[in-house]
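Exercise 3.2. Students should predict the tertiary structure of the chain below and write it as structure tokens, then compare their answer with the key that follows.

Predict this chain's 3D structure.
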Amino acid sequence: MKRRGPVAAAMAMAMAMAMALGLAVTLAGVAAAQPVTIPPPPNPVDVAGGRSLFEISCTSCHGADARGTAQGPSLLGVGAASADFFLSTGRMPLDRPRAQAERKRPAFPPEEIALLTAYVASLGTGPPVPTNDPSRGDLAAGYQLYADNCASCHSSAGAGGALGHAVYAPPLNRATARQVAEAIRIGPGAMPVFGPDTFDDHEVDSIVRYVVYLRDPRDEGGIDLGHLGPLSEGMVAWAVGLLGVLLAARWIGTQD
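Answer key:
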């Protein structure tokens, strides 16, 4: 077998080092482009306080071990985002078990919601409370994502709508930016879950920014008509048209 000369060996070593360096740079770029955020574990003091509140207020539906009962689902592994969303929107505790959870005044103050959220977060892995910033989102991209994925249920103006018997998509005008982001990640009720594989954090920021914009959009076309879209516009068109017909008929009748 012919042995390599010193020049060939040096060239081979240089090529190997270049390939290794290129692979390292590529992997570093991927890691930088897709950072993995691991939320810190809940504070043990908060977990203990949340457990005490849970034992007083939640065990009748979710069980003493949070594994659920006939009146309520298991909370193992649902994550902090789910607990914070349902508690901060007043959807929990439920007034009527098995009915769709409706938004109402929260039953707990923010301090107790934080403790209960910490306890639920300690019960297993699940979506954390989002740390999204809507100001980083792109309004135009948010509009497109909302139109493609959300408007069919929540309407183009975020006014909500019926989905079936006793099932509806709620209006979005009262949801905070964090609650919108939480809903995207956990999929409450009939809403599907949009995890990081579907929408990254920037896309969530963009959707949230657009939903917040819907509360006070620029009405460059004139009167907003309640921002209900074609429904209110059609009603106004019918009302104006019928009024015009009646006025025309009256005018014609006075010509005899």
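Discussion points: The first strand starts at residue 161 and ends at 164. The beta strands are 161-164, 167-169.
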